[in-house]
Amino acid sequence: MTVHSSTDSSAVVIRPARPADQASSDGLPPLRPDGDGPRWRRTVVAERAGEVVGLASMQLDPVTENYLCEVVVAPAHRRAGIGTSLYGAACQLLERPYRVQARAMARQPLRRLFAEALGCELVRHHPEPWADPTTTPWRQWIDAHPVPDGHTALTLAEADPAGVRRAWLQYDEWSHAPVGPVRPHHLVDAWERYRSGLDADTSTVVVEEAAPEEVLAFCLVSAQQWEGRTLAVSETAAPDQEDGVAFLEAAVARTLLRLGARGVRRVELEGHSDDPHFPVLVAGLPEHDADPMDLLALRRPAAG
Ligand SMILES: CC(C)(COP(=O)(O)OP(=O)(O)OC[C@H]1O[C@@H](n2cnc3c(N)ncnc32)[C@H](O)[C@@H]1OP(=O)(O)O)[C@@H](O)C(=O)NCCC(=O)NCCS
């Protein structure tokens, strides 16, 4: 597809990934297979002297009309334009005019530098605070946020599955709206995949005692996702939930209590800066570390 000449005269070829390809250079993630339909994915690789030294993958967002982009170039081959060429080649494979998005985490600064070089704009900010529920300040915060009177906290294992599913689907639809047009028919599929990875004993839902099948707020835990981080997604089911911050805090507090009892020391609280209750929750947390993440829209090169 694209060929770079280089000082050591070994050319770099950019081409679609093949099933037999292996990321043979250090620092590259395993290649994931292409997909079609709602799980559409394509990958291009950079090959030098028979070795895969970089890759770019585009994946259809499971819920919104966006593509999610990942570009990785092996450290020894960086700053030679390979990442930019991979991105351009991957864009040529896109079948729809959807926006291309990438994640830029504060602790991976190259992501932002690269995105800025391509041209990008902020879609939304994720504060991503880290909780250590084994420490005194966090135990005090947990104790200070009980479940409001007339309500109760259930684990996911105890809760009505249909009620949790309904709450999640409601949340997922309104929370994605600022990111781009939602593809509602894919929400259910996305929930089934997400649900299968949740920890039922530390995830919490808050319900009214008189109506336990109506979930008001939740804190859903995916244990040990990456770099030792346990991820917890927390919000109210309805964006305009009355006393929503108190319900949200209670859900997070019950989950942290259970994770603390297990000795889990890094819980990343996931939520968005434009959610109605999450930023208020973050503002009241004890002093904490964080890995803020920006969702960026990348400029698509002109076709041709
Ligand atoms: C980000 C990454 C893919 C860039 O690959 P690359 O082949 O070095 O990219 P390019 O050579 O095309 O760089 C394009 C521009 O990005 C910016 N950039 C890339 N790496 C940079 C660095 N280390 N410092 C400052 N700017 C940098 C520069 O503006 C660069 O242009 P320049 O070299 O003319 O100054 C690579 O560093 C990498 O794999 N990092 C880890 C994974 C990652 O962060 N991926 C991005 C997620 S989408």
From TrEMBL:
Note whether Transferase occurs among the keywords.
yes
Q: Which GO terms describe its molecular function?
A: acyltransferase activity, transferring groups other than amino-acyl groups
Which residue ranges does the record assign to the N-acetyltransferase domain?
1-143
Q: Which InterPro entries match?
A: Acyl_CoA_acyltransferase, GNAT_dom
Q: Which UniProt keywords apply?
A: Transferase
Q: Which residues form a coiled coil?
A: none
Composition bias type Polar residues, residue spans? 1-10
| Stretch list, region Disordered | 1-39
Q: What is this protein called?
A: GNAT family N-acetyltransferase
Q: Which organism is it from?
A: Desertihabitans brevis
Higher taxonomy: Bacteria, Bacillati, Actinomycetota, Actinomycetes, Propionibacteriales
